Inverse folding.
């Protein structure tokens, strides 16, 4: 995938290879067909491709690491275990989006979506940040439908969590959007 950063902080994403062909491949008429007067001249068809759904790619990559063990200070980039910010950083780095290492630093990047737990404003792939006894100390990736995937703790590792729990509602700090897909027309 070609990721082109824009001056406004957004990215243009273009697939390097087609995801799925929507029209049949272009074929040349046989010599017999070319000689046949009944064969009409049809303008060539061009292959068109579905746009990539970048949010789905992020979520698919994140879900592939579900149940990875938790280790404070670890990242899947160089370990089989991870902490919350290492998980977020690793998932986005796979798409050439470089984020800082700590959750507090990650919370400073991107566009503010909401400072209240408002699912109607969130999109899959948004980053969610939580306070743990002070400043931001936990990060996760919004999956949609009120759920996030995150490296929870030593007991559970990387899990999907329902955000409607009082703990997450009470510690929620901010949701950030670090990418916005604009498909060229």
């Amino acid at each position: 995938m070609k990721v082109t950063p824009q001056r406004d902080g957004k990215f243009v994403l273009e697939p390097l290879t087609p995801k799925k062909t929507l029209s049949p491949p272009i074929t040349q008429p046989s010599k017999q067909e070319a000689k046949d007067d009944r064969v009409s001249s049809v303008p060539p068809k061009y292959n068109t491709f579905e746009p990539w759904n970048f949010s789905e790619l992020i979520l698919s990559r994140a879900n592939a690491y579900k149940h990875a063990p938790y280790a404070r200070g670890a990242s899947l980039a160089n370990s089989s275990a991870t902490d919350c910010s290492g998980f977020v950083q690793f998932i986005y780095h796979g798409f050439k989006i470089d984020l800082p290492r700590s959750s507090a630093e990650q919370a400073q990047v991107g566009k503010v979506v909401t400072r209240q737990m408002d699912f109607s404003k969130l999109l899959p792939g948004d980053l969610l940040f939580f306070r743990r006894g002070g400043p931001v100390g936990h990060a996760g990736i919004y999956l949609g439908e009120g759920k996030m995937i995150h490296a929870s703790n030593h007991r559970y590792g990387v899990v999907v969590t329902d955000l409607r729990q009082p703990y997450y509602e009470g510690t929620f700090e901010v949701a950030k959007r670090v990418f916005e897909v604009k498909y060229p027309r």
Notes: Residues 54-63 form the longest helix (10 residues). Helices lie at 31-35, 54-63, 84-93, 103-106, 166-171. Residues 73 and 83 are 6 Å apart (CA to CA).
